[in-house]
Batch of 4 targets.
Target 1
Amino acid sequence: MSVIITVAPTGPIASTADNPSLPTQPLEIAEAVHAAYLEGASVAHLHFRDENEKPTASLDIAKRTMDLIEERCPILIQVSTGVGLSVEFEDREKLVELRPRMATLNPCTMSFGEGEFRNPPIGVRRLAARMRELDVKPELEVYDTGHLDACIRLWEEGLLAEPLQFSLVLGVRGGMAATPDNLITMVKRLPPEAIWQVIAIGRSSLELTAIGLALGGNARAGLEDTLYLRKGELAQGNTPLVTRAVQLARDLDLSIASPEQAEQILALPQH
């Protein structure tokens, strides 16, 4: 079995004040992604920042970052349409017009820490339909059990192509707690033939990534999910986190998917 390793180098929340190794500018992100690719990552999950490190849906910044990555390596690009809590949904959804191979689709509005993550139903359906028109594969990010039900409704309406690709997000305040029981419950409820990965935030990242791999899922690693390599030790960039995820998979006798293999596993449309 081949496992897809995704690197999430930046995210929407942390800053270089939290971890000086966090890449925020296009060239920094591209170099971090390239290093992760060399370690075994086949997918790059991208958030973008402006010159002040604020989350942005700027098409110019996104395009520049994507171009810099594509100049360096053949990793598959997945753009986050989540962007950041301060960015309007109508601006976030325009990122799919750049036609990345994949993009996130967040099915529900929710409390997110001290803020609100706004994903209105009519907008989600509009975005899902547009992604299907552009052949951009949705990565369905579910933070709670009801989010999974919302995704299944989109699938039943013909807005999502199989195989469905899920990220099970645990540990965000406002969503599922990061516990093995919650992860197992969600895995049991996934549709047949679904492809999935664990996104565990903070201190539970390592434990739940290992459990997810043992249950047949893929893995994500990077500074978006945890700023620490271990308790009290800041990660010196994304590379150590990706290296650890790759080693976890290999310790379970799993092979690491190349970008070409990941493309086949995910049944990505050809652009």
Target 2
Amino acid sequence: MNPRPWLDSLRRLAVTAALAALTAAPAHADMAKIRETGTLKVALYKDMLPFSGNDGGQFTGIDVALANALCKQMGLSPSLLPFDADDDSMSDDLRNMVWKGHYLGYGPADVMLHVPVDPVFMRQNGEVLIFAPYLRENFVLAYDRERVHEVSRFEDLTGQPTGAERGSAGANALLSSAQGALSSKVKIYPEADDALHALFAGEIAAAMVTRAQYESALKARGHSDDRFAVAEIQSPVLPVRGWAVGMAVKADQRALAEALESALEALRASGELQQIFAQYGVSLVAP
């Protein structure tokens, strides 16, 4: 009997098994490597107050505290990789910080925080696994009650100066609202915090910012809620219910994703997640 067909079959089986092992191994291999090194590399935006930012030379914020808490829960040491947001697309941020690495040699990290958990966005970025939403963000109109008694629609601000961060959806909402009637009074600021500073200083009557930006700025400046209020006003350029925010890892790193999700649930169950948000004066809105 010619042994050749049997040998060929064995070789094919060996090649198939090897390919299967190569395909299946990375998820567990990378998690094992993380455990071996004892360090989790976490990508965080540099300037996204109150979630991350420079406070007197110290990198701090909600996402920074969350990264440290997740690592502690997992028995790992955090290695934080702050990065600048890409001007063009968050998909580029995922490429640079999660699944490929920056061409300058920075990254990739094991996980990136503050990623939109959105079905369309997820389908557009198949190289990553987006999971574990930990809050829901939304835009609000913060206004000065001493200048505007009550705001329930954009038209209530007619003739009043308003402000928003350059390039934000909040700025687009103000500029396009009320058939453009407010556009001549809209002031665009480099950062949302600048618009809020102008609001608190009485320079403008209202600012379109995220709820987290408003609440953290209010706490930091020690203002009371009596003078300022917020209204949730619908706009075609804003998500109706806001957007959920979670994490991202490489698409094949399900073991890491499961470990992170378990750690997040433990923080939520113990109340530590709520405490992190409360430290910055921000309401934890369930995703």
Target 3
Amino acid sequence: MLTRRQLIKSAGLFGLLGSGLSLKTIAAGNSEKKRVVRFAHLTDVHMEPELNAPAGLAKCLHHLQSQKDQPSFVMSGGDCIFDALHQTKNRVELQWNIWQNIFRQDNTLPIEHCIGNHDCWGFGQKEDPLYGKKYAMEKMQLTMPYRSFNNGGWHFIILDSIQPKADGTWYTCLLDDAQFSWLQQDLAATPLSVPIIVVSHAPLVSAATVVTDNKFKDGEGYVIGVGNMHMDSPKIIELFDQYPNIKLCLSGHIHLHERVLYNGVTYISNGAVSGNWWKGMRYKTDNGYALVNLYDDGSFDDEYVSYGWNA
């Protein structure tokens, strides 16, 4: 006796055979997808000399490079160092030196950078020529805080989520006018046949950040503030709705692993290498990184990997 599911599958198969397709052709159709890019997404390392963080990053790098199916490059999602926003220049330099030394000693893969809020130095200290993002861009060897490139038939867009507040004391998560205009032009110039992946430090869309860290306020509802996710998400999503070839958006910032599908685009936050800032697991997201596979048909898969760190 066939089950209902088996009958449905059989009916679908007979329908294909009735259209003139052979079993061999159907099987070939299921195996046509080809992987074109595999990379590791590391975000929110928050490097510091304390809490054994240098050993943690080294272990993470060894773990991902020991994968039997090794990634071809590292996508760094920002917040490389613990903090530059409110630290002295010497302290910031110390953190960057540790970061760079570990990547020189313990990593052989190319790295692409995305700027995080903790990477930006000296908001409120505008007299220094390295004020703001210039310091991070120098350390990351970037000429622009946002950019795009092609790899394996996919178009990569790396956004700059972090903008200083007018008073210079904090930051907001959004795209400034110049960057949004650039994004419009970049999307328009990309053929619709080319799948697109977008990388940002702060999430463009997030569910987890709404419900964690006691964001519900009596009489107000959920209040997530200006520094948790993009404040301009509606504007960005309205733009994305015009481009069905935008497939995947990756982010970090919230140190939580989540996946949201909205209007045909998948938004994934990939936890943090530092977990709960090197103090263990954050909620139910362990210290980890992601392995991302991109395919020639515009599909993808993403696996969040714990590298076995004990605080």
Target 4
Amino acid sequence: MPRRPILAVLLGTVLALAGCSGGGDPAPSAAPSSSAADGAFPVTVTGDTGELTLDAAPERIVSMSASATETLFAIDAGDQVVAVDSTSTYPEQAPVTDLSAFTPNAEAIAGYEPDLVVISDDIDGLAANLDTLGIPVLQLGAAEYLDDAYAQMTTLGDATGHRDEAEDLVQSTKDRIDAAVAAAGGAGGAGEGLSVYHELDPTGYSATRSTFVGGIYSLFGLANIADAAGQDTGYPQLSAEYVVDAAPDVVVLADTVCCGQDAATFAARPAFDTIPAVRDGRVLAADDDVASRWGPRIADLAEQVSQTLQG
């Protein structure tokens, strides 16, 4: 399986960024929720597998989700995190371990004596295995819409006793995305009438508008060339011929780290130098992780897209 469509593990099936403040694309699916107020415990939070009640703020958290790791540190809960999985490479102070995100081992996780484990994907029955060991598990899978991403931030705030910080993070993320879109003239601005190709790996895996990253482009008024591919997935594989024929005006490369791609390698592919994005200098070499995770750095990607559109 290609590196990027491993999104089922690193990303899950991700969300469609339905609009900076929750409007725009399809209505969000059921999002995590909680009954917390102002960091009070006990608290009941709701993840993908149902409700979880925590009697006290967790002091030893293991994060098996790169997006959750970024959020935990962004809401000032980093001091409670004792271990993270092998994909949680941001921020720098995250306690990265050899805990595999792809073949997670419940006993290895238990070795860190966690009082809460946050997971994205329930691989090989991980949640049940941890439950058997008496370890609370909060599963927050890939957000499908922007509001889901915000809800996960709030849920992690409730679960860790950082509700106020989480609410501040949600607002600041919204504000940054709003500002990025406004700087490019909004949906009727610099992106109006232009099309975009988001590349997940050099074999042509892409993302439609019904994914969180595709939703970002919709905010700017960009048409997504992957939408017309006619594949029943948010992550279709496009042929090189399809991409050339679609002639995208903007290209975002999310395979710069994994696969060494940049504007020059993209343009060097057969006939790709004819693509308008190449001719006009609108090829954005994005950090793979920034363009893959539904944590607070979604605002980073929006700002990079805005800058690309503004030239």
